[in-house]
Amino acid sequence: MDLQEILHNVIEWAREVGKIQLDKIDKEIEYSSKSTNVDMVTEVDLLSEKIIMDKIKQYYPEHSILSEENGELNKESDYVWVVDPLDGTNNYLHRIPIFCISIALKHLGETILGVVYVPKLDEMFYSIKGEGAYLNDTKIKVGDKDALDQCILATGFPYDKKVSEHNNVNLFCNIVKELQGVRRTGTAAFDLCSVACGRFDGYWELKLSLWDMAAGELIVKEAGGEVITSKINKEDGTEGINIIAGNEKVVSLVKEKVNEIHNYFN
Ligand code: IPD
Ligand code: CA
Ligand code: CA
Which of 26, 195, 244, 256 is the most core-located residue (most Cβ within 10 A)? Predict the structure, then answer.
Protein backbone atom coordinates (compact mmCIF):
# COMPACT_ATOMS: atom_id res chain seq x y z
CA MET A 1 0.00 0.00 0.00
CA ASP A 2 1.36 3.41 -0.96
CA LEU A 3 0.24 5.45 2.04
CA GLN A 4 1.37 8.75 0.47
CA GLU A 5 -0.94 8.09 -2.46
CA ILE A 6 -3.81 7.13 -0.15
CA LEU A 7 -3.20 10.30 1.88
CA HIS A 8 -3.32 12.38 -1.28
CA ASN A 9 -6.67 10.81 -2.21
CA VAL A 10 -8.19 11.21 1.25
CA ILE A 11 -7.18 14.88 1.39
CA GLU A 12 -8.92 15.42 -1.94
CA TRP A 13 -12.11 13.68 -0.76
CA ALA A 14 -12.13 15.71 2.47
CA ARG A 15 -11.78 18.96 0.51
CA GLU A 16 -14.61 17.97 -1.84
CA VAL A 17 -16.93 17.13 1.06
CA GLY A 18 -15.88 20.28 2.92
CA LYS A 19 -16.94 22.43 -0.04
CA ILE A 20 -20.37 20.81 -0.01
CA GLN A 21 -20.72 21.36 3.73
CA LEU A 22 -19.81 25.04 3.31
CA ASP A 23 -22.25 25.40 0.45
CA LYS A 24 -25.14 23.83 2.35
CA ILE A 25 -24.68 25.43 5.76
CA ASP A 26 -26.62 28.58 4.91
CA LYS A 27 -29.55 26.71 3.36
CA GLU A 28 -32.43 25.00 5.09
CA ILE A 29 -31.16 21.70 6.52
CA GLU A 30 -33.30 18.62 7.13
CA TYR A 31 -32.48 16.80 10.34
CA SER A 32 -33.72 14.23 12.85
CA SER A 33 -32.62 12.84 16.21
CA LYS A 34 -30.83 9.56 16.97
CA SER A 35 -29.74 8.00 20.31
CA THR A 36 -31.26 10.84 22.37
CA ASN A 37 -33.21 13.97 21.49
CA VAL A 38 -29.98 16.02 21.48
CA ASP A 39 -28.05 13.63 19.19
CA MET A 40 -28.80 14.81 15.66
CA VAL A 41 -28.20 13.67 12.11
CA THR A 42 -28.72 15.98 9.13
CA GLU A 43 -29.07 15.44 5.41
CA VAL A 44 -25.55 16.88 5.12
CA ASP A 45 -24.10 14.18 7.42
CA LEU A 46 -25.72 11.56 5.20
CA LEU A 47 -24.66 13.15 1.91
CA SER A 48 -21.08 13.63 3.17
CA GLU A 49 -20.96 10.03 4.29
CA LYS A 50 -22.26 8.76 0.97
CA ILE A 51 -19.61 10.67 -0.96
CA ILE A 52 -16.79 9.37 1.24
CA MET A 53 -18.07 5.79 1.28
CA ASP A 54 -18.51 5.80 -2.50
CA LYS A 55 -14.91 6.99 -2.91
CA ILE A 56 -13.58 4.29 -0.58
CA LYS A 57 -15.59 1.62 -2.40
CA GLN A 58 -14.36 2.93 -5.77
CA TYR A 59 -10.66 3.19 -4.85
CA TYR A 60 -10.33 0.42 -2.26
CA PRO A 61 -13.20 -2.02 -2.88
CA GLU A 62 -11.65 -4.76 -0.73
CA HIS A 63 -11.56 -2.61 2.40
CA SER A 64 -14.07 -2.54 5.23
CA ILE A 65 -15.75 0.70 6.40
CA LEU A 66 -16.92 1.76 9.86
CA SER A 67 -18.82 4.99 9.43
CA GLU A 68 -21.03 6.83 11.90
CA GLU A 69 -24.39 6.84 10.19
CA ASN A 70 -24.36 3.57 8.29
CA GLY A 71 -22.40 1.15 10.43
CA GLU A 72 -19.94 -1.41 9.25
CA LEU A 73 -19.71 -3.11 5.91
CA ASN A 74 -18.58 -6.55 6.95
CA LYS A 75 -15.76 -7.51 4.67
CA GLU A 76 -12.90 -9.73 5.63
CA SER A 77 -10.19 -7.21 5.11
CA ASP A 78 -7.18 -6.26 7.21
CA TYR A 79 -7.98 -2.63 6.37
CA VAL A 80 -10.83 -0.70 8.01
CA TRP A 81 -11.76 2.90 7.26
CA VAL A 82 -13.17 4.78 10.24
CA VAL A 83 -15.21 7.77 9.14
CA ASP A 84 -17.03 10.62 10.83
CA PRO A 85 -18.44 12.50 7.83
CA LEU A 86 -19.42 15.53 9.90
CA ASP A 87 -18.04 15.88 13.41
CA GLY A 88 -19.86 18.70 15.15
CA THR A 89 -23.35 18.18 13.77
CA ASN A 90 -24.97 20.34 16.45
CA ASN A 91 -22.53 23.16 15.63
CA TYR A 92 -23.41 22.75 11.96
CA LEU A 93 -27.14 22.96 12.65
CA HIS A 94 -26.58 26.10 14.72
CA ARG A 95 -24.28 27.57 12.07
CA ILE A 96 -21.38 27.60 14.53
CA PRO A 97 -18.39 27.51 12.18
CA ILE A 98 -16.44 24.67 13.84
CA PHE A 99 -17.18 21.28 12.31
CA CYS A 100 -15.00 18.81 10.48
CA ILE A 101 -14.58 15.66 8.45
CA SER A 102 -12.59 12.88 10.10
CA ILE A 103 -11.22 9.91 8.15
CA ALA A 104 -8.84 7.25 9.51
CA LEU A 105 -7.44 4.05 8.03
CA LYS A 106 -6.65 1.12 10.29
CA HIS A 107 -4.54 -1.90 9.41
CA LEU A 108 -4.90 -4.96 11.65
CA GLY A 109 -6.39 -2.73 14.35
CA GLU A 110 -3.69 -0.06 14.23
CA THR A 111 -4.40 3.41 12.84
CA ILE A 112 -1.91 4.08 10.04
CA LEU A 113 -3.38 7.23 8.50
CA GLY A 114 -5.59 10.06 9.70
CA VAL A 115 -7.07 13.16 8.09
CA VAL A 116 -9.22 15.83 9.76
CA TYR A 117 -10.42 18.75 7.65
CA VAL A 118 -12.03 21.87 9.12
CA PRO A 119 -13.72 23.52 6.11
CA LYS A 120 -14.54 26.93 7.61
CA LEU A 121 -10.94 27.42 8.69
CA ASP A 122 -9.54 25.59 5.67
CA GLU A 123 -7.37 23.61 8.06
CA MET A 124 -6.19 20.20 6.84
CA PHE A 125 -4.66 18.09 9.62
CA TYR A 126 -3.06 14.82 8.54
CA SER A 127 -0.66 12.13 9.53
CA ILE A 128 0.79 8.83 8.39
CA LYS A 129 1.98 6.60 11.24
CA GLY A 130 5.68 7.16 11.87
CA GLU A 131 5.90 10.26 9.68
CA GLY A 132 4.81 13.10 11.96
CA ALA A 133 1.68 15.26 11.97
CA TYR A 134 0.92 18.24 9.76
CA LEU A 135 -1.45 21.17 9.53
CA ASN A 136 -1.63 22.52 5.99
CA ASP A 137 1.83 21.11 5.21
CA THR A 138 3.49 22.54 8.32
CA LYS A 139 4.75 20.05 10.86
CA ILE A 140 2.97 20.41 14.20
CA LYS A 141 3.73 19.42 17.77
CA VAL A 142 1.89 19.39 21.07
CA GLY A 143 2.43 22.11 23.70
CA ASP A 144 5.01 21.96 26.47
CA LYS A 145 3.02 23.12 29.52
CA ASP A 146 3.63 21.25 32.74
CA ALA A 147 1.12 22.74 35.21
CA LEU A 148 -2.67 22.80 34.96
CA ASP A 149 -2.91 26.50 35.79
CA GLN A 150 -0.99 27.22 32.57
CA CYS A 151 -3.29 25.03 30.50
CA ILE A 152 -6.31 25.60 28.30
CA LEU A 153 -8.05 22.25 28.07
CA ALA A 154 -10.97 21.20 25.92
CA THR A 155 -13.73 18.81 26.92
CA GLY A 156 -17.25 17.75 25.97
CA PHE A 157 -20.36 16.12 27.37
CA PRO A 158 -21.99 12.92 26.09
CA TYR A 159 -25.43 12.80 24.48
CA ASP A 160 -26.79 10.67 27.36
CA LYS A 161 -25.76 13.30 29.94
CA LYS A 162 -29.31 13.80 31.24
CA VAL A 163 -29.81 10.17 32.24
CA SER A 164 -26.28 8.95 33.00
CA GLU A 165 -24.14 9.67 36.04
CA HIS A 166 -21.10 9.21 33.75
CA ASN A 167 -21.77 12.56 32.11
CA ASN A 168 -18.55 14.48 32.86
CA VAL A 169 -20.36 17.05 35.03
CA ASN A 170 -18.62 16.09 38.29
CA LEU A 171 -15.27 15.68 36.54
CA PHE A 172 -15.67 19.06 34.92
CA CYS A 173 -16.32 20.71 38.31
CA ASN A 174 -13.26 19.01 39.79
CA ILE A 175 -10.92 20.04 36.98
CA VAL A 176 -12.13 23.46 35.84
CA LYS A 177 -10.95 25.39 38.90
CA GLU A 178 -7.39 24.15 38.39
CA LEU A 179 -7.05 25.43 34.82
CA GLN A 180 -6.11 28.59 33.05
CA GLY A 181 -9.23 27.96 31.00
CA VAL A 182 -11.55 25.43 29.47
CA ARG A 183 -13.20 25.26 26.02
CA ARG A 184 -16.09 23.19 24.67
CA THR A 185 -15.90 23.37 20.89
CA GLY A 186 -18.50 20.70 20.04
CA THR A 187 -16.22 18.54 17.92
CA ALA A 188 -13.93 15.91 19.32
CA ALA A 189 -11.83 15.63 16.14
CA PHE A 190 -11.16 19.38 16.20
CA ASP A 191 -10.31 19.22 19.91
CA LEU A 192 -7.74 16.49 19.31
CA CYS A 193 -6.18 18.32 16.36
CA SER A 194 -6.08 21.52 18.43
CA VAL A 195 -4.08 19.58 21.02
CA ALA A 196 -1.80 18.26 18.28
CA CYS A 197 -0.89 21.77 17.12
CA GLY A 198 -0.49 23.14 20.66
CA ARG A 199 -3.57 25.37 20.51
CA PHE A 200 -5.10 23.44 23.38
CA ASP A 201 -2.79 21.96 26.00
CA GLY A 202 -4.99 18.95 26.55
CA TYR A 203 -8.40 17.38 26.15
CA TRP A 204 -10.54 14.88 28.01
CA GLU A 205 -13.95 13.45 27.26
CA LEU A 206 -16.12 10.42 28.06
CA LYS A 207 -18.03 8.05 25.78
CA LEU A 208 -16.64 8.94 22.39
CA SER A 209 -17.13 6.64 19.43
CA LEU A 210 -14.20 5.38 17.38
CA TRP A 211 -15.06 7.65 14.44
CA ASP A 212 -14.86 10.74 16.71
CA MET A 213 -11.25 10.05 17.70
CA ALA A 214 -9.44 7.55 15.44
CA ALA A 215 -7.85 10.12 13.10
CA GLY A 216 -7.29 12.72 15.85
CA GLU A 217 -5.62 10.18 18.14
CA LEU A 218 -3.00 9.36 15.51
CA ILE A 219 -2.46 13.05 14.75
CA VAL A 220 -1.86 13.83 18.46
CA LYS A 221 0.53 10.91 18.89
CA GLU A 222 2.44 11.81 15.72
CA ALA A 223 2.68 15.37 17.02
CA GLY A 224 4.61 13.99 20.02
CA GLY A 225 1.63 13.78 22.36
CA GLU A 226 0.12 11.04 24.46
CA VAL A 227 -3.42 9.68 24.25
CA ILE A 228 -4.86 7.32 26.86
CA THR A 229 -8.24 5.64 26.55
CA SER A 230 -10.54 3.31 28.44
CA LYS A 231 -13.87 1.66 27.68
CA ILE A 232 -17.28 2.47 29.16
CA ASN A 233 -20.87 1.52 28.36
CA LYS A 234 -23.22 4.21 27.14
CA GLU A 235 -26.86 4.28 28.26
CA ASP A 236 -27.92 2.95 24.84
CA GLY A 237 -25.83 -0.19 25.40
CA THR A 238 -23.10 0.65 22.90
CA GLU A 239 -19.48 0.93 23.95
CA GLY A 240 -17.94 4.36 24.49
CA ILE A 241 -14.34 5.49 24.72
CA ASN A 242 -13.02 7.69 27.53
CA ILE A 243 -10.04 9.71 26.43
CA ILE A 244 -7.32 12.05 27.69
CA ALA A 245 -4.87 13.71 25.27
CA GLY A 246 -2.00 16.15 25.69
CA ASN A 247 1.71 16.04 26.34
CA GLU A 248 2.79 13.28 28.74
CA LYS A 249 2.79 15.57 31.79
CA VAL A 250 -0.60 17.13 31.08
CA VAL A 251 -2.15 13.69 30.50
CA SER A 252 -0.85 12.49 33.87
CA LEU A 253 -2.17 15.64 35.64
CA VAL A 254 -5.62 15.37 34.03
CA LYS A 255 -5.76 11.63 34.70
CA GLU A 256 -5.13 12.30 38.40
CA LYS A 257 -7.99 14.83 38.58
CA VAL A 258 -10.36 12.54 36.63
CA ASN A 259 -9.58 9.52 38.80
CA GLU A 260 -10.30 11.53 41.98
CA ILE A 261 -13.97 11.41 40.93
CA HIS A 262 -14.28 8.16 38.93
CA ASN A 263 -11.56 5.60 38.43
CA TYR A 264 -11.90 5.69 34.64
CA PHE A 265 -8.20 5.27 33.89
CA ASN A 266 -5.93 2.69 35.56
C1 IPD B 1 -19.89 14.66 18.71
C2 IPD B 1 -18.83 15.72 18.84
C3 IPD B 1 -18.85 16.27 20.25
C4 IPD B 1 -18.68 15.20 21.31
C5 IPD B 1 -19.69 14.09 21.10
C6 IPD B 1 -19.61 13.55 19.67
P7 IPD B 1 -21.07 14.41 16.28
O8 IPD B 1 -19.89 14.11 17.39
O9 IPD B 1 -17.56 15.20 18.57
O10 IPD B 1 -17.81 17.21 20.45
O11 IPD B 1 -18.87 15.79 22.57
O12 IPD B 1 -19.41 13.05 22.02
O13 IPD B 1 -20.54 12.51 19.50
O14 IPD B 1 -22.33 13.81 16.83
O15 IPD B 1 -21.16 15.88 16.14
O16 IPD B 1 -20.53 13.70 15.11
CA1 CA C 1 -18.60 12.74 15.92
CA1 CA D 1 -20.82 12.91 13.04
Answer: 195
